[in-house]
Amino acid sequence: MAQAHEVVPVMDTKVTPKRSKAGVTTPAAGSRQGLGGPYGASFTGEGTRGLTFERRWTRPGVHPYDEIAWEYRTAGISSETGKTVFEQKDVEVPVFWSQLATNVVVSKYFRGHVGTPEREHSVKQLIDRVVTTIAAWAETNRYFATDEDLAAFQAELTHLLVHQKMAFNSPVWFNVGIEARPQCSACFINSVQDNMSSIMDLAKTEAMLFKYGSGAGVNLSPIRSSKARMSGGGIASGPVSFMRGYDAFAGVIKSGGKTRRAAKMVILDVDHPDVLDFIDSKAKEEQKAWALIEQGYDASYTGEAYGSVYFQNANHSVRVTDEFMKAVERGAEWQTREVTDGQPASTYKAREIFRRTADGAHP
């Protein structure tokens, strides 16, 4: 998983390397050799030979699209009640693609508004958008020894994608060929500190990651518990309270501007004072949803019942230790500890925590 941080430029000086007939990249005048970037971690490729790339599935002079049959279909998505939520007619797809693959790819990854000239209408356009962009990066940065190697790479990648022998993650399909500096990582691990500025910064960071189709995970254990005293008086809110806000943002921000939910994971350490509140949080909201369903509210996951309760947009996980699992085996007690000073907070039966974790996963 990628770490969410400031983007580091690949090269700290703008140079234009030259490639010889033998495929060896030579430094431009005034450039530095070796490792570039402010942290010395970005390889410039200067003075090195580009990659050779052999063909396995394709032939020179024959485009991968010309070796398969294509047809036009209608892509559609319906809700649990049968209502059409998406439809696009006359989309061009390979004949061997399933209807499910067609529905998912067209509804999630085709760019542009349906019914406008800018809307993608063929799988060829989708794959070409991504592949040609990656190939352009490779050409600009002299990744390959010869133009033939670059052409082989582009053809092989096209073949693999159109035949579904491989697939990129969603952010690649969402952003490559669209954004100037596309966000391509699927998952980001974020961090948070025990102060309001950091807690609110996390909300913004997650929102921007969701916007471009990526998922986010965070361990909220650094946030003091709902039983802890504040330095200025009063009692802290605790991580579960802030989770409600994070969950609400995840619910309203569609990943990549599409209809799918944001992908989110929240973790709490097993020795955090609020661990039982954390464990029970989803189960309690589930009970509220069922109460609404019994009163006649829509029971679908996009309906009013589940749309009215918290914690529907994240995977909640308890981080356990070897020490805790051994306490479960022995039937021993387990001590939670204050976040700020590590002092003992509450004592529980380790097996009680473990059982409630299991029950919370299957309410």
Kindly estimate the percentage of residues that lie in beta strands according to DSSP.
15-25%
Which overall shape is indicated by the principal axes computed on the Cα atoms? Answer: globular
The low-confidence parts are 4-41
Total number of strands: 13
Distance between the termini: 30 Å
Roughly how many Å is the radius of gyration?
26 Å
Largest sheet: 5 strands, parallel
Secondary-structure element order, N to C: EEEEEEEHHHHEHEHEHHEHEEH
Q: If you had to describe this structure to a student in words, what would you say it looks like?
A:
With 363 residues, the protein is of the alpha/beta class. Among the domains are: 1-49, no CATH class; 187-361, no CATH class. Helices cover 35% and strands 17% of the residues. The protein contains ten helices and 13 strands. Strands 1-8-9-10-11 form a five-stranded parallel beta sheet, covered by helices on one side. A two-stranded antiparallel sheet has the order 2-3. α7 runs parallel beside α10 (350-361).
Write the layout of secondary structure elements.
Elements (H helix, E strand, L loop, with lengths): L1 E2 L14 E2 L5 E2 L8 E2 L5 E2 L26 E9 L5 E11 L4 H11 L13 H18 L6 H16 L7 H6 L11 E4 L5 H16 L3 E5 L19 H14 L11 E6 L5 H20 L9 H4 L7 E5 L2 H9 L2 E5 L6 E6 H12 L2
Parallel strand pairs: 1-8, 8-9, 9-10, 10-11
Antiparallel strand pairs: 2-3, 4-5, 6-7, 12-13
Helix pairs in contact: 2-3, 5-6, 7-10
